Amino acid sequence: TWNVLFYSYAVPGIDKRYIEEGLTIAAETMSEFGQGSIEGVEIF
Question: What is the per-residue DSSP string for the chain?
Answer without folding.
Answer: --S--------TTS-HHHHHHHHHHHHHHHHHHHT---------
